[in-house]
Each structure stands twice: as C-alpha cells, then as structure tokens.
C-alpha cells in the first residue's frame, strides 16, 4: 500500500511539508565545509532557519551533520518540541534570535 501523493515529512520536526509551505534543502555537511554534492534533506523553512540561527557552519560540519545529532542539540530539541504543535504552514521569526557573532 502506497501513500502516493502524501507530502513528505520534515526529518527534523516530523511534521508534513505540503508543496505550498515554505521549505528548503539543508546540506548535512555545509557546502563551504566540504559538503558540496553531499547529502541534503528537505526541511520546513522555519526549521532550516533555526538550525542556522543556532549553529555555525563549523559546528554543523564537525558535530551536527546528521538529523539525529541536530535533534540532540538542546536548543534545537526545545525548538522541535515548540514547533511540533504548530500547523505545517506555520511561519514565524526565529524564536530564539540568532547565535552571537564570533569575534575574529
């Protein structure tokens, strides 16, 4: 039995991603850190925004290059619990603000 036509689920939050909902592809290893041509996952735009507001490209490449690792990050885990009760098309500014800028 096939669920042909059912929208895919966001691997981060588990909610469906209907075609009319803001979405994007996330490189599990950032392109600038060697991930060009590597695995990508389709996420809700709000989920993708939260990942990049939380983690640096270096953090993503080194420690958070799988969905399970992303889900284990404390801030992302809180976000996932928060967004899980929202409808698939829910849009919001990134609730926690962006990560602090790094000094050079």
UniProtKB/TrEMBL annotation:
Keywords of the record: Endonuclease, Hydrolase, Nuclease
Q: Name one GO molecular function term.
A: endonuclease activity
Quick check: keyword Nuclease in the entry? yes
- Name the PANTHER family on file: HNH DOMAIN-CONTAINING PROTEIN, TUDOR DOMAIN-CONTAINING PROTEIN
Q: What is this protein called?
A: HNH endonuclease
């Amino acid at each position: 039995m096939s669920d042909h036509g059912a929208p895919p689920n966001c691997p981060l939050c588990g909610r469906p991603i209907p075609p009319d909902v803001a979405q994007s592809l996330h490189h599990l290893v950032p392109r600038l850190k060697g991930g060009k041509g590597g695995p990508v996952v389709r996420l809700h735009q709000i989920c993708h925004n939260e990942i990049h507001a939380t983690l640096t490209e270096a953090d993503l490449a080194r420690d958070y290059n799988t969905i399970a690792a992303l889900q284990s990050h404390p801030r992302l885990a809180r976000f996932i619990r928060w967004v899980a009760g929202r409808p698939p098309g829910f849009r919001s500014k990134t609730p926690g603000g962006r990560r602090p800028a790094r000094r050079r």
